Amino acid sequence: MLRWRQIAPLILLALIPLYLSGLHQQVFSLYPTTEVPFNATSEEATIRPSRVLGKPITEHSSLRPSESSTTPPPYPTQAPSITIIAVWTRREKPVVYLENFFASVAANPQVDLLFVNYDRHQVGCDQPLSHIPNAREICLSNEEYWTLHADFLCNRWKCDEHEREVVLAKLYERAPGDHVNSFFRPFRSTVFAKWVNPDTPIWGWCDMDTMLGNFERNFPWDVAKDFDILAPSLPIHGDNILLFTPGHLAFFRNSPDVVDQFMTFPNLVNADAFATLPWIGSDSEEVEYSNFAFLNTNLTFLRFHALVPSRFHLASPGRGVYGLENGPKWDLSLPTSPTSGDGRAAINTILDQRGHEWKQTPTFSKKGREYVVELREGLFPEFVWFPKHFAVDFVPDYTQIPRAGKRYAMRRAKNGPVTDRMEPDDVIVLPPKDGSMDFDRYNRPFFVEFLYVHFQVEKYAKWWDLPQRAVGTDQVLFTDKDRGLQVWDSNGQIIFDTGMVDENEVP
Known about the structure:
- Strands 3-2-1-4-8-6-9-15-16-12 form a ten-stranded mixed β-sheet.
- By secondary structure, it is an alpha+beta fold.
- A hairpin with a 3-residue loop joins strand 10 and strand 11 (about 320-325).
- Among the domains are: about 80-305, Spore Coat Polysaccharide Biosynthesis Protein SpsA, Chain A; about 310-360 and about 440-505, no CATH class.
- About 25% of the residues lie in helices and about 20% in strands.
């Protein structure tokens, strides 16, 4: 007995850190430290809800926070104009573009970012990445992430215990193939509903190798509420117009009706179809779901001019995103070229003037021209990155509209016709050497403002690099996606430069 009394204090001292650690984890933990086996049953995979970074969330059985709870809801109490739900899988080595993505989100106060850290690789996600006022981060373990999906699906299908086990097992089985978190993109607002204000009118998804432009000037606010699907797209003026929802950015009406329509997708009509039918591909948001959505006459949609298509582009959190069109006409010996300090300063001035002089105009103006088109399936004659039978397109009639301008394609009403519409360009002309302002879109380079830029090809180039800190609101990221990039300060001075690769060296 004496010996026990002697060692008891030592045991107590040893247990105190464990108790404090457990208390800390109870308050601030973002996910359980004990991993559930990948082939766990539904009972074994039952885990407590995740936490918003640094902010405990009251546990509830439903996907939405309880209205009777006195705890503030884990979403903005005033519904934002848009909630973008981004799913991010951390790796041990951070990527260089993430800070610029966050900076571009911060420059758009209308946008609420729900940043879902999906700890697929078990590297941890207990520290926030964004540090911006209009972003909220949550951290989900593998089990939490897929349990939320199983909850969503089985709540829809009224699964019994066995069906839930099968659904969860299938989710785990297919998870390694979901390389870019595509399998359930159309359902993010419902899967993560407890973090989305139910009164939010529009939600979207996005990839993080993007920079958002100015939403006030470039998002179709005045007509967005009229459509179920909003598909930002390239300003294509060719002979075949492909329709799909881009994986890097797309928006949806935040409505149960839209979810109901997507749940009629053949693989998702019930638990048996989910388990037995051939499963979808890893880019399904652009392929199977797009094919289904654009051909489903119960869904309305708007395809709109939004994505920078150009080799040369400019991105600034404070000024917006621009493509330089007609680049071969850019005489690099002129003062307006980016190789000239005066030229860079002049471009900065032009972009500043854009912000000061811009006036809101209707998306659909009296000058727009619109006509009915017929959608086709599997007949797109050009290259696509997926099985061609999924392609949905239409053939434009340029006797009805001009070939140049802002293109919109839409189904305005359920079971209504699909139309193609062209609106006049809104261009920023670079001053010519002789000072004249006569403009022809084929004789002079000009800027066009867009909603966002996607660093798709650039980030795989040997020269690709970015500063560790985000581009400032008064700075400009200039990119020649074939050769290199620079960051300019507000005076047009180059403060970061990858060096421009000689064009003869570009493969």
